[in-house]
Write the structure tokens for this entry.
Amino acid sequence: MRDLYQRLNVPPQANDEELQQAVARCPNSALRQDAEAAFAVAKRRADYDKLHATLSDIGKLRTQLGLTHGAHWQDDVANDFSVPPDEIVSRHDKLVDRVSHVVKLYNRWRGLRGAWLLIAIFTIGTGLGIALGLTLSQTIAA
């Protein structure tokens, strides 16, 4: 399906008068006939607008998933609703990056846990030994 708004170079919010002027200026007779058929009756335009919105959403979704048409489709009717690929990372990729980061931090903590446990036990033992030694030396001296 063609994106008639794009092909006529008018926004989807254009009023009926702007659409009629764009259709009248259109040099392609087949495109002009399609536009007249879609926009001549208010109900047909409403139906076309619903379908246009759905196909536009699908085009945006395809772009976010990295599914764009190849170079040989770029100027074809099949590419009318495809949005140019953006450099924005998809939500899935962001989620994978965040989970990977958390897993890395967990693995690092897990690897150091044994060493930190030994250091903590040694520190606590040394502190208790010193405290006990000071207590004993004060009781013996007294």
User: Anything to note?
Assistant: Residues 5 and 13 are 9 Å apart (CA to CA).
